[in-house]
Write a structure and sequence with these properties.
Number of strands: 3
CATH superfamily: Flavodoxin domain
Number of helices: 5
CATH class: Alpha Beta
Bound molecules: flavin mononucleotide
Structural class: alpha/beta
Strand content: 15-25%
């Protein structure tokens, strides 16, 4: 857990990749996050989800959780739906061509995440006023 905390602490922004089980994020992911707090504070997070509906419900839950960590959860996300995921698993899941239809969304998400990452990193250098 100490190593996870140090790793998370080093980053100024995050992309959380989640599957979806029974309309929620995996318990293992939530459990890992629950061991952290200050490492996440005032940093942005974007999401990539996969599952029958692209992890949409898991991501919605994680956005609420992120607020409790005092993070900035971002709107732009990648949803890998079953109709894309299943053929990808049968072909080559590591081939970038398989997921080419998501490239524009990924670009939008990354540009947005970089803006928030840079902006909040600068903001964190200013202490909160009393
Ligand atoms: C018990 C079980 C429940 C699931 N529930 C959902 C669900 O609620 N929504 C969804 O989109 N996919 C659901 N799935 C599909 C999983 O998201 C999918 O199998 C995914 O690949 C699991 O990711 P993982 O293999 O990395 O754990 C479920 C799968 C299982 C086995």
């Amino acid at each position: 857990m100490a190593r996870l905390g140090e790793t998370i602490d080093r980053a100024d922004g995050y992309i959380i990749i989640t599957s979806e089980y029974i309309h929620g994020c995996p318990a293992s992911l939530k459990n890992a996050m629950d061991h952290l707090f200050v490492e996440f504070n005032r940093k942005p997070v974007a999401f990539v989800g996969y599952g029958n509906v692209g992890g949409a419900r898991a991501i919605e839950q994680l956005r609420l959780v992120a607020v409790e960590f005092e993070m900035a959860p971002l709107r732009h996300a990648i949803h890998i739906m079953a109709d894309l995921m299943i053929p990808a698993m049968k072909a080559d899941p590591f081939s970038p061509e398989v997921f080419a239809s998501l490239d524009r969304r990924l670009e939008t998400m990354v540009v947005d995440l970089l803006w928030w990452t840079t902006t909040l990193a600068a903001g964190r250098t200013t202490p909160l006023s009393d």
